[in-house]
Write a structure and sequence with these properties.
This protein has 18 helices and six strands. The chain is mainly α. The strands form two sheets. A four-stranded parallel beta sheet has the order 1-2-3-4. Strand 3, helix 5 and strand 4 form a beta-alpha-beta unit. Helix 3 runs parallel beside helix 4. The protein is elongated, with a radius of gyration of 28 Å. It starts with a helix and ends with a helix. About 5% of the residues have low confidence.
Length: about 425
């Protein structure tokens, strides 16, 4: 009866809508039916596959409501695909839609594609009923990083991330959650910073490079005058005042500040403008505006830093003395844990040298405050200490850690 009903609907569509309609039949309870009544799935698939070639539809769509393990639905997908091929329906599509429920959505979807599904039907972002679904952006980017080149010829893959963010914001009237894989803010930061598993540090797929996102030029005591000049032009645009002579003076000022134990930051607009001024340069109007804006917000940022300092002192006092220094263990437990799953790994330990400016094995408050001050200048709109810490780690410390690990590897390779 079900097969007869399907045939009746297929004929009606072709008679009343278009004889060339691209028709799919959706098996919405596919997974449950494969567990309790697999014979029913077999009969429907066998019937649709056995239709004369001229009467066959475009394909079969099927759904998993989020309960199945990837191995289970992968095996079922393989069985259905074999039956379609056995009956000669080799060009029939078999497309999967996976609802999110237990965190296995994308694994399940990739498993289905590996086991015979010809495609997916999904939204560009994960938003949907209940917990959402396995979206096309995440699936396509996973295929690309695993070596699939065909999808790049079919879709504007470089735009997928932006499209997913826009659709999320339109449908939810809110920002994309920062922890969303691929198109959340932290997805890009993770590529920059999870040293022990970062594929870019191992010569693998670079998500930032794929999306055309640039890693910033970071000014430290190791920066050359040429790098400083590039940073000036990137931040403030080209100006006749910006040349190698002033860049060399800025480099000398950086070294002088370090020798005088002045721990300044030079990567924000304000920090770079102040360094330019200290080195004898005459500030441009844009530089002056940046410094003036910093003066207006500095009290708010100083208050947030003071709140963080209170937390710091709690960890600092665990050894019986508050001396503005904490061990890496205490620093991890107090501040780093939300951003790093592991810090004892060799690469992470090397990267943490960016915080150990004194090379004494301890994290000094002034070393940490350096990044907090930078984040406050660069992201003055932060509302509370949590947001300030978030910007300091995601936009400052994590990229700096990757710089440190790459520098170490280059030195070891020489």
């Amino acid at each position: 009866k079900l097969c007869a009903f399907l045939k009746e609907r297929i004929d009606w569509i072709r008679a009343n809508l278009s004889k060339d309609s691209l028709i799919f039949t959706n098996l919405r309870d596919f997974s449950n039916c494969m567990v309790h009544h697999p014979d029913r799935v077999y009969h429907v698939v066998n019937f649709l596959s056995s239709l004369p070639a001229a009467e066959r539809i475009m394909g079969i769509a099927y759904e998993d409501l989020g309960k199945s393990l990837p191995e289970e639905i992968g095996a079922w997908t393989c069985a259905v695909r074999k039956e379609m091929d056995r009956r000669g329906w080799t060009n029939g599509h078999f497309i999967i839609h996976v609802h999110e429920q237990w965190g296995l959505g994308h694994s399940t979807q990739l498993s289905c594609l590996a086991m015979g599904a010809t495609g997916i039907w999904a939204g560009v972002c994960a938003e949907g009923a209940a917990l959402g679904h396995a979206d096309s952006t995440t699936t396509i980017l996973n295929l690309i990083r695993l070596g699939n080149t065909k999808v790049q010829g079919q879709f504007n893959c470089q735009y997928l991330r932006e499209a997913a963010r826009v659709v999320t914001e339109v449908t939810t009237e809110g920002l994309t959650p920062a922890r969303t894989p691929i198109y959340g803010d932290r997805a890009v930061d993770t590529v920059f910073g999870f040293l022990f598993s970062d594929p870019t540090a191992q010569g693998g797929f670079d998500l930032c490079k794929f999306f055309g996102l640039e890693q910033d030029i970071r000014i430290t005591t190791m920066a050359s005058p040429e790098m400083i000049l590039l940073k000036l032009e990137k931040v403030f645009g080209k100006d006749e005042k910006f040349n190698l002579e002033i860049a060399t003076s800025m480099k000398e000022q950086i070294l002088k500040n370090a020798a005088d134990d002045r721990k300044e930051e030079y990567n924000s607009k304000v920090g770079l403008a102040l360094l330019f001024d200290q080195a004898g340069g005459k500030m441009t109007s844009e530089m002056a505006e940046a410094v003036e804006g910093d003066l207006k917000t500095s009290q708010h940022i100083d208050n947030l830093i003071a709140e963080i300092k209170e937390e710091w002192d709690i960890w600092d006092g665990r050894d019986g003395e508050i001396d503005d220094q904490v061990t890496f263990d205490h620093f991890y437990n107090g501040f780093m844990a939300p951003y790093f799953g592991c810090y004892r790994c060799e690469d992470s330990q090397k990267g943490l040298r960016c915080l150990d400016m004194d090379s004494d094995g301890m994290v000094d408050w002034n070393e940490f405050r350096f990044y907090l001050k930078w984040a406050g200048r660069e992201y003055s709109e932060v509302k509370n200490k949590k947001e300030l810490l978030d910007m300091a780690f995601r936009k400052g410390l994590i990229p700096a850690m990757k710089d440190e690990i790459l520098k170490t590897r280059e030195e070891n390779g020489k």
